[in-house]
Design a protein that fits this description.
The complex is a heterodimer of chains A (405) and B (107).
Chain A lengths: L4 E4 L3 H12 L6 E5 L22 H4 L4 H6 L2 E5 L3 E5 L4 E4 L4 E3 L2 E4 L3 E3 L12 E3 L3 H13 L2 E5 L3 H12 L3 E5 L12 H13 L3 E3 L4 E7 L2 E7 L4 E3 L2 E4 L3 E3 L2 H5 L8 E3 L10 E3 L4 E4 L5 E2 L4 H15 L11 E6 L2 E7 L6 E7 L4 E8 L2 E8 L2 H13 L5 H5 L11
Parallel strand pairs in A: 1-2, 1-7, 2-3, 7-19, 9-16, 10-11, 10-16, 11-12, 18-20
Antiparallel strand pairs in A: 4-5, 5-6, 8-17, 13-14, 14-15, 20-21, 22-23, 23-26, 24-25, 25-26
Helix pairs in contact in A: 1-8
Chain B lengths: L1 E6 L5 E6 L5 H7 L19 E4 L1 H4 L7 H7 L10 E3 L13 E3 L6
Parallel strand pairs in B: 1-5
Antiparallel strand pairs in B: 1-2, 3-4, 3-5
Classes of the chains: A alpha/beta (405), B alpha+beta (107).
The structure holds flavin-adenine dinucleotide (FAD) and FE2/S2 (inorganic) cluster (FES).
Family (chain B): Belongs to the adrenodoxin/putidaredoxin family.
GO molecular function, one term (chain B): electron transfer activity
InterPro entries (chain B): 2Fe-2S_ferredoxin-like_sf, 2Fe-2S_ferredoxin-type, Adrenodoxin-like, Adrenodoxin_Fe-S_BS, Beta-grasp_dom_sf
Chain lengths: 405, 107
């Protein structure tokens, strides 16, 4: 039998590559290898609906076994790829097998960044990345009363919202002087700090965690560098991710903050493509862009499948992302880094407004809060390169849609 | 289980027993129905789970929330009065026999 195209990592991106290979007309064998014990699932609900008990595991699973079989996608779970032999065009698996490949896809994703302080390994301290993590957290949350979230980024804040809604006493410790500082402007950070405080969450900014204390191996408190101490019987660490690049590095592929790929998801080896959280994409200007999002997992997955079929399908759309906290939906489009002007449009008090980011007068990003329409319009504006001037965004009588023509 | 008929873009019909409480998007994905992408996993954030609900059923469904309506204004295929996001429709006994048609593009 012909060697299959082997996809390492059975996450959303790996599955996308497999399905896109079929829509690109590839009819050879496909083998998806995943080290988690389950079939590919949607990760975003883990800190949202699933954690809140609004969905069960089967609902998160993207395709049931029969749907994979129909497309002749073979998926082995609970097995990891431990090494790549580029010369022999084969991978070594954790179950001792060696598997030849006709093409190789690295969709290894990322893992939670470990907290580098004493006590981080105490019982009751969790990262939130996998279905398994979430299951254990949900059980621990039932019994918990005081919850400390380390890191005021998306995942930590979404978790804080779920825990607060369940009546827990929640504290968020953020080292920076505002929430989600890496990605949003101060007005958005301030809005979210207020939103959480309104729901009874203590938001502590400038709180650098120094260590965790425990009693009989279980976490009991978190202390900060400035000497404060926060009691906790459950701690969630959400301080970012680390891309899983070790396999690629060991195989000699270029990695820098991720597996380096071009706009068509190609690595430095023509037989190997990579997609999703594990990659860093080289932009035409030379800069590297690492995105951690569903859109990136899906779009790069499509690029990777096309590339294996010898076609170019560059991923060039403006990045988008969302976050659900309480009844507020944040939808972001574009990259706001490097902005020199922001315009706020809408009603902050009514929790319905958008923040427009400009650089040298050009629109580069929009954060929409409970304004899905503005977000979707922003995608069109940025993808098609339409111009919107700061004065227009600022003018409440200006019809945003007219910028599309 | 609630029997729902999905009509794929090429016209073929799939009848699926959807567990109560599941969204029509989840059941479509799980069963490999063609014509629904459901990229965001049901967060009402991607608009790639667009469907047309048969007239007689459209009015029986709970009304769409503002967020869904705004996303619907931006679907890739034609927006019709019967357009809904299938991730926002939860299967319940009173929907048994419902028919949804899937558009030819989602993104
Ligand atoms: C709690 C949470 C909430 C999120 N919310 C949002 C959101 O609201 N919006 C959004 O856009 N994004 C969100 N994300 C991010 C989004 O889920 C990821 O960007 C996306 O899942 C990336 O997909 P992926 O396939 O690249 O990686 P992953 O989903 O990480 O999948 C990679 C898989 O490969 C496996 N693997 C790694 N190495 C090997 C190996 N050597 N052998 C075999 N298998 C291996 C991993 O275990 C994993 O199962 C969220 C993420 C989390 C954790
Ligand atoms: S699945 Fe994304 S909007 Fe329905």
């Amino acid at each position: 039998m012909n060697a299959p195209i082997v996809i390492v990592g059975a996450g959303q991106s790996g599955l996308q590559v497999a399905e896109s290979l079929r829509s690109e007309g590839y009819d050879g064998p496909i083998l998806l290898v995943g080290d988690e014990p389950c079939l590919p699932y949607h990760r975003p609900p883990l800190s949202k609906a699933y954690l809140a008990g609004e969905a069960d595991e089967a609902q998160l699973t993207i395709r049931a076994p029969a749907a994979l079989a129909k497309k002749q996608i073979e998926c082995v779970t609970g097995v990891s790829v431990v090494a790549i032999d580029r010369e022999a065009r084969a991978v070594h698996l954790s179950d001792g097998r060696t598997q030849a490949y006709a093409g190789l896809v690295l969709a290894t994703g990322s893992r939670a960044r470990p907290l580098p302080v004493p006590g981080a390994d105490l019982a009751g301290v969790f990262a939130l990345r996998t279905l398994d993590d979430t299951r254990r957290i949900a059980t621990a949350l039932e019994a918990a009363r005081t919850v400390v979230v380390i890191g005021g980024g998306f995942i930590g804040l979404e978790f804080a919202a779920v825990a607060a809604k369940q009546g827990k006493q929640v504290t968020v410790l953020e080292a920076a002087d505002r929430l989600m500082a890496r990605v949003v402007a101060p007005p958005v950070s301030d809005f979210y700090a207020r939103l959480h405080r309104d729901h009874g969450v203590a938001v502590e900014l400038g709180a650098q965690v120094a260590g965790l204390d425990g009693v009989a191996g279980r976490v009991s408190a978190v202390s900060t560098a400035d000497g404060r101490r926060f009691a906790a019987d459950l701690v969630i660490v959400g301080i970012g991710i680390v891309p899983n690049t070790e396999l690629a590095e060991a195989a000699g592929l270029t990695c820098e903050r991720g597996i380096v790929v071009d706009e068509c998801a190609r690595t430095t080896d023509t037989q190997i493509v990579a997609s999703g959280d594990c990659t860093a994409r080289r932009l035409p200007g030379g800069a590297l862009l690492r995105l951690e999002s569903v859109q990136n997992a899906v779009e790069q997955g499509k690029s990777a499948a096309a590339a294996l079929m010898g076609r170019e399908r560059p991923f060039a759309a403006a990045p988008w992302f969302w976050s659900d906290q309480y009844d507020v939906k944040l939808q972001m489009v574009g990259l706001s880094a490097g902005y020199d002007e922001v315009v706020i449009r809408g009603e902050v008090e009514a929790r319905r407004f958008s923040v427009f980011y400009f650089r040298a007068g050009a629109l580069i990003a929009i954060d929409a809060i409970n304004e899905a329409g503005v977000h979707m319009l922003g995608r069109k504006l940025l993808d098609k390169g339409h111009r919107l001037a700061p004065e227009q965004a600022r003018d409440p009588h200006f019809e945003l849609a007219s910028a599309l023509t | 289980m609630v029997m729902i008929t999905y009509i794929e873009p090429n016209g073929s019909e799939q009848q699926i027993d959807v567990p109560e409480g599941w969204s029509l998007m989840q059941a479509a994905l799980s069963n490999g129905v063609e014509g629904i992408e459901g990229e965001c996993g049901g967060s009402c954030a991607c608009a790639t789970c667009h469907c047309y609900v048969d007239d007689t059923w459209a009015e029986r469904l709970p009304a769409a929330a503002d967020n869904e309506l705004e996303m619907l204004d931006n679907v890739a295929a034609e927006r019709r009065p019967t357009s809904r996001l299938s991730c926002q429709i939860k299967a319940s006994a009173d929907l048994a026999g419902m028919v949804v048609r899937l558009p030819d593009v989602q993104s």
